[in-house]
């Protein structure tokens, strides 16, 4: 019934790739590294967008739209920014095709060469700050809190559906503030919003923290992040929020007249989450039977599958199914009655398991006679018979969905607890990393040199310096030099 | 108080450009032909998206996402399609930048040349049909009804904000069907949905019709459209829906096993509306004082402006304003209380007029004493005193918004009636076109030759062959040859 999914324990990576394709989430396109997000996958992304967009607006942000193309020279204006992105930029050099001389094919028209090449945005700081220069004159124009939903392109060499694709969808917030304090507050606010979204909607526990210099966004003064742990013990960066200081204000000369009458550089932030979250959602919860979706993001929360041998039986079941639909839909429950006669119940059961539908209701003739339904939970794969004479579906189903949502989170939380290990020696570090994986909490001397060396030796990187931990003196797990606190190491996606 | 807008009667084109900028809708970016859609403009677009998306989903369509890039060779697979789009394609040829030898600038890395150039999608038929080939095997996979919200790029030489930009935002629907009849039905359905959206939400009367061969989409068998009339007497194509026949199925070899056991080519449609609709919305209703927005798309439907001389007065007004907010918000009315003390009431009045807010409520100390409010309508610029002892705002405001919505439509409808002229001679055709503009209903012999000649002589084109008119024999207004019905000519955006 598993529709031929490989087992996680045998080949986690293959399991992921096959699951993404078989559950109709996404597939590779003819263009190297670019994916097609299929309707079922896209509807999950739409649910994510809806909640995030609401949270952004509730905290005073507005959406806008900035150009796809960035003049090559813009990218160079912020030194570390260009260094971070130049190596993976899609470059537009021409603006026209024409027929080849033999008329058999279409070629790039050499006469239609752009004066200045354009970069397809890998991120929009440069084009946005060049615009902000005109929008910001006085303290009255601040804060400016704008978000955009957009596609971006980073020419990655090794790509994986959702996790690392040449083109991906994301939102990028870009804000401008009068003071450093306010900008830092915004940076932290957005990290907290991301964490809240991940935990409440995705059922994904995350560690909030700060990136080491090595992992910092190109152009940021400080990068805040949320880090999650996948079932194979690898970490996944689920969202980042950058305090840009005055770096982009300097690069694009964005100044404002202060209340006191001075002319000051603006302080900035930027923050983003992407379709990578789809990868996190899939890998954090799913099992060998397929997807496990948290009810709050599931396109279909409840599916009703009829079990019948004759048309008369189907008619009676349909009547009952519509009663259930009519009871649940007004409550905002997304419920689907699958009355297709081209597929058998067993096929449908496997299909909805594969697609992670949280609750499945099976309805047969005996259920009608007894006024019962069989309710199956996707997350625990458990079933129960519900007697409708005793139970009101209008409270039972919403409560069950809530229970599943909480259960999924708790399971992932427990997994992370079980797979976060404190180590104090380099031997233990290597041993835990190799045998168990997960997050390793260890002392670090604070130098890029040590971080690079550890990465070179073990492939583990510092995922973050967690924000919510107590200060603790110690010595670096690798160099033995003094350390003022533990950081989280892991191999990462 | 008009914030320096030019008058429509003096320079319509300048009036439009200035209005788009001053009302904070959009502006030109540093990249030629690409616009920045500002938060206020974008929020109107979001309202459009929300309604259209709902209408698409209610008619069985799902959203998905396909790649931004199209291999150059794909574009060539459908002959007339490549001819239509090759001349205005942004072409990606490289995937990396590097430092120049002197280290002073960043250049395109000549070693990072793509094997096959990629086109930034001008429309997605080719990449989508190449995907559909894998998705469609049997009649069970049909119909396939997918939409995507995306950015597209057409390298236009003369651009205008919203109306014609190198990059624009749109939705593009792409459906696949088992029969010709079903595909034509879908094409017509989507044209009707566009018409319904334009009329009900944008307050924009449209003519539904079919394009002549000259104006047909490159790759379509038939193009349906909705055409609207702007205040300067020029027409604007507001949406198109294409019956693709089996053209793309042939080009990409998309066949299905029919119920009867045969192998048949799939029938297709595609349909789209874009941020061009923003241009139509602005030009159809606005006046010399600024935007006039239909309430159903207005980001702010009602604004409350306090008028006061002391803080005590403001406190009392605030209390009343919050009463009004609390009464209207639960009804779904978007109402904003502008209590900024950095601007005077007169400035705010002009600002909200410029931004097209449908209803403005002014609240001063005398209003508090009398339990009245002053209500101003943006569309008619009329004011009335409303006595709250006699009138219940909870019914008054929603009714007023409805009245404004209807009024805006009716005004535009009347304008179109007054500016649609039936002509039967070539002299009249030229005279009406020059002196009055608008839609000209005239007989046409059905040939591209005549249409081209008329365009050459007058710049007028056939906007559409209207669907809802009676058959009428006549002779072509230009060639005198027989004609079986009138078509609509106009100069167009």
UniProtKB/TrEMBL annotation, chains A, B:
<dbReference type="InterPro" id="IPR016061">
    <property type="entry name" value="Pro-tRNA_ligase_II_C"/>
</dbReference>
<dbReference type="GO" id="GO:0005524">
    <property type="term" value="F:ATP binding"/>
</dbReference>
<keyword id="KW-0963">Cytoplasm</keyword>
<dbReference type="Pfam" id="PF03129">
    <property type="entry name" value="HGTP_anticodon"/>
</dbReference>
<dbReference type="InterPro" id="IPR004499">
    <property type="entry name" value="Pro-tRNA-ligase_IIa_arc-type"/>
</dbReference>
<dbReference type="InterPro" id="IPR033721">
    <property type="entry name" value="ProRS_core_arch_euk"/>
</dbReference>
<comment type="subunit">
    <text>Homodimer.</text>
</comment>
<dbReference type="GO" id="GO:0017101">
    <property type="term" value="C:aminoacyl-tRNA synthetase multienzyme complex"/>
</dbReference>
<dbReference type="InterPro" id="IPR006195">
    <property type="entry name" value="aa-tRNA-synth_II"/>
</dbReference>
<comment type="function">
    <text>Catalyzes the attachment of proline to tRNA(Pro) in a two-step reaction: proline is first activated by ATP to form Pro-AMP and then transferred to the acceptor end of tRNA(Pro).</text>
</comment>
<dbReference type="GO" id="GO:0006433">
    <property type="term" value="P:prolyl-tRNA aminoacylation"/>
</dbReference>
<dbReference type="InterPro" id="IPR036621">
    <property type="entry name" value="Anticodon-bd_dom_sf"/>
</dbReference>
<keyword id="KW-0648">Protein biosynthesis</keyword>
<comment type="similarity">
    <text>Belongs to the class-II aminoacyl-tRNA synthetase family. ProS type 3 subfamily.</text>
</comment>
<keyword id="KW-0547">Nucleotide-binding</keyword>
<keyword id="KW-0436">Ligase</keyword>
<dbReference type="InterPro" id="IPR004154">
    <property type="entry name" value="Anticodon-bd"/>
</dbReference>
<keyword id="KW-0067">ATP-binding</keyword>
<protein>
    <recommendedName>
        <fullName>Proline--tRNA ligase</fullName>
        <ecNumber>6.1.1.15</ecNumber>
    </recommendedName>
</protein>
<dbReference type="Pfam" id="PF00587">
    <property type="entry name" value="tRNA-synt_2b"/>
</dbReference>
<dbReference type="InterPro" id="IPR002314">
    <property type="entry name" value="aa-tRNA-synt_IIb"/>
</dbReference>
<dbReference type="Pfam" id="PF09180">
    <property type="entry name" value="ProRS-C_1"/>
</dbReference>
<feature type="domain" description="Aminoacyl-transfer RNA synthetases class-II family profile">
    <location>
        <begin position="27"/>
        <end position="294"/>
    </location>
</feature>
<dbReference type="GO" id="GO:0004827">
    <property type="term" value="F:proline-tRNA ligase activity"/>
</dbReference>
<dbReference type="GO" id="GO:0005737">
    <property type="term" value="C:cytoplasm"/>
</dbReference>
<dbReference type="InterPro" id="IPR045864">
    <property type="entry name" value="aa-tRNA-synth_II/BPL/LPL"/>
</dbReference>
<dbReference type="InterPro" id="IPR017449">
    <property type="entry name" value="Pro-tRNA_synth_II"/>
</dbReference>
<keyword id="KW-0030">Aminoacyl-tRNA synthetase</keyword>
């Amino acid at each position: 019934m598993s529709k031929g999914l490989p087992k996680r324990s045998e080949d986690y990576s293959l399991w992921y790739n096959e699951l993404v394709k078989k559950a109709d989430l996404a597939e590779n396109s003819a263009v190297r590294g670019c994916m097609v997000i299929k309707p079922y996958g896209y509807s999950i992304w739409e649910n994510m967008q809806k909640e995030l967009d609401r949270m952004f607006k509730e905290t005073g942000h507005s959406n806008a739209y900035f150009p796809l193309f960035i003049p090559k020279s813009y990218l160079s204006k912020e030194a570390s920014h260009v260094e971070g992105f130049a190596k993976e930029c899609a470059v537009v050099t021409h603006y026209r095709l024409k027929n080849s001389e033999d008329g058999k094919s279409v070629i790039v028209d050499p006469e239609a060469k752009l004066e200045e090449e354009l970069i397809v945005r890998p991120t929009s700081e440069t084009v946005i700050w060049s615009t902000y220069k005109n929008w910001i004159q006085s303290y009255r124009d601040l804060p400016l809190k704008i978000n955009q939903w957009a596609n971006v392109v980073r020419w990655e060499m090794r790509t994986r559906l959702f996790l690392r694709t040449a083109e991906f969808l994301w939102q990028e917030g870009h804000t401008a503030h009068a003071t450093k304090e306010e900008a830092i507050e915004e940076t932290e606010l957005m990290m907290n919003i991301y964490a809240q979204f991940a935990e409440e909607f995705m059922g994904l526990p995350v560690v909030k923290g700060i990136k080491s210099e090595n992992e910092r966004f190109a152009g940021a003064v400080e990068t805040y992040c949320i880090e999650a742990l996948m079932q194979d013990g690898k970490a996944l960066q689920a969202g980042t929020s950058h305090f840009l200081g005055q770096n982009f204000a300097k690069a694009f000369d964005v100044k404002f007249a202060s209340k006191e009458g001075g002319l000051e550089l603006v302080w900035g932030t930027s923050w983003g989450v992407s379709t990578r979250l789809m990868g996190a959602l899939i890998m954090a919860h799913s099992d060998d039977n397929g997807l496990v979706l948290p009810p709050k993001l599931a396109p279909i929360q409840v599916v009703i599958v009829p079990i019948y041998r004759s048309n008369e039986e189907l008619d009676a079941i349909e009547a009952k199914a519509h009663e259930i639909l009519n009871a649940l839909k007004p409550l905002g429950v997304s419920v689907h009655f699958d009355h297709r006669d081209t597929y058998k119940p067993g096929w449908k059961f496997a299909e909805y398991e594969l697609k992670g539908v949280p609750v499945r209701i099976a309805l047969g003739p005996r259920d009608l006679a007894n006024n019962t339904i069989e309710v199956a939970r996707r997350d625990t794969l458990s079933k129960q018979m519900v007697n409708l004479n005793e139970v009101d579906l209008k409270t039972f189903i919403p409560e069950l969905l809530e229970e599943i949502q909480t259960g999924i989170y708790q399971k992932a939380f427990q997994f992370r607890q079980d797979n976060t290990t404190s180590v104090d020696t380099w031997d233990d570090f290597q041993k835990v990393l190799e045998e168990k994986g997960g997050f390793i909490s260890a002392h670090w001397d604070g130098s890029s040199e040590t971080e690079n060396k550890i990465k070179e030796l073990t492939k583990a990187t510092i995922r973050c310096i967690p924000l919510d931990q107590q200060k603790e003196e110690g010595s670096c797990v690798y160099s033995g030099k003094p350390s003022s606190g533990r950081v989280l190491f892991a191999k990462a996606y």
